[in-house]
Amino acid sequence: MAVERTLVLVKPDGVERGLVGEVISRFERKGFKIKALKMLKMTREMAEDFYSVHREKPFFQDLVEFITSGPIVAMILEGDSAIDVVRLMIGATDGRKAQPGTIRGDYALSIQNNIVHASDSQESFQREYKIVFSEDEIIP
User: Which of 42, 72, 78, 99 could serve as a FRET partner for 36 with CA atoms 20 to 30 Å apart?
Assistant: First the structure.
């Protein structure tokens, strides 16, 4: 297995509901190392850049509005096959369809209010983390 990194965001609904510690502890118990961690409020410009791959889709503005509606907690996790394993741990995008035992299956209320975001590929990670973190904020 390859050691890799991925970006995870606890979205505004997860922060508001007090689930930050639960989300982080699940990843730590799995064995992931936290390489960067911070709380921030995404600006509209950051959000539009972050979700730029969805710019032409009808739900783009809803994504931007939601992610900028409150604080988020962003982290870079490192571990074996981090991207695939984290995606399995968070569950299906629509929380109503996510398997019990996954973060979304246990806590998400809808497709939008789904607690977390995680990079879906190495290319996505490389693009996304630079929007949220500067290089000096990441532990080598």
Answer: 99
CATH number for 120? 3.30.70.141
Q: Is 117 a catalytic residue?
A: yes
Cα–Cα distance for residue pair 66/63, rounded to 1 Å = 5
d(CA 106, CA 74): 20
- 46-77 residue pLDDT tens: 999 999 999 999 999 999 999 999 999 999 99
Q: Which residues have C-beta within 8 Å of that of residue 115, sequence separation ≥ 6?
A: 10, 11, 13, 14, 17, 19, 23, 90, 95, 103, 104, 107, 108
Domain that holds residue 57: 3-137
As a whole number of angstroms, the distance between CA 126 and CA 27 comes to 20
Tell me which of 117, 119, 125, 128 is the catalytic residue: 117
Instruction: Give the count of domains, the chain.
Output: 1
Token reading at 20? 């930050």
Instruction: Check residue 5 and give its pLDDT.
Output: 98
